[in-house]
Amino acid sequence: MIIKKMGIDHFFEVKDLWNTTYGMGLRTIDDSKAGIEKFLLRNPNTNFVCMIENDIAGVILSGHDGRRGYIYHTAVKEEFRKQGIGTKLVGEVIRSLRSEGINKVALVVFKTNTGGNCFWESLGFQERNDLVYRNLSLNDENM
Most buried of 8, 25, 76, 101 (most Cβ within 10 A)? Predict the structure, then answer.
């Protein structure tokens, strides 16, 4: 098992993993190859893949705005779950965010994603009941 920085050359294999992962919410523009390339260029040190025998077994996207870190699109292939891959990917993200001076990290998980919520809770990520999550789509084509 090798954890390494994600590059745009991993995109198609990563996208296949995301498309087959329950609870993953993808957007047509933001999660296109161009959208992910833009994200990777802005956040070159905080995105990782886990390689097992030249295949991607897991992925995690993360970035920051200089103040807070954010984790997106974390996934591990079903046949590789319960082997510590997700935990190692999160650990690498936390290490990289700390090295960039980030002191807090947040993420969003669908309420119906029971497995994902259990995973994040097991790593110490606390549910916030004092917030209302809101967003506004700026592009109707970004479904």
Answer: 76
Beta strands across the sheet bearing 2-5: 2-5, 48-52, 55-64, 69-76, 105-107
Query: What is the rounded distance in angstroms from the CA atom of residue 81 to the CA atom of residue 77?
Result: 7
Strands 69-76 and 2-5 turn out to be: unpaired
Phi, psi of 92 (to 5 degrees): -65, -40
| DSSP letter, residue 80 | G
* pLDDT string in tens for the chain (143-residue length): 999 999 999 999 999 999 999 989 999 999 999 999 999 999 999 999 999 999 999 999 999 999 999 999 999 999 999 999 999 999 999 999 999 999 999 999 999 999 999 999 999 999 999 999 898 989 988 88
DSSP structure class, residue 66: S
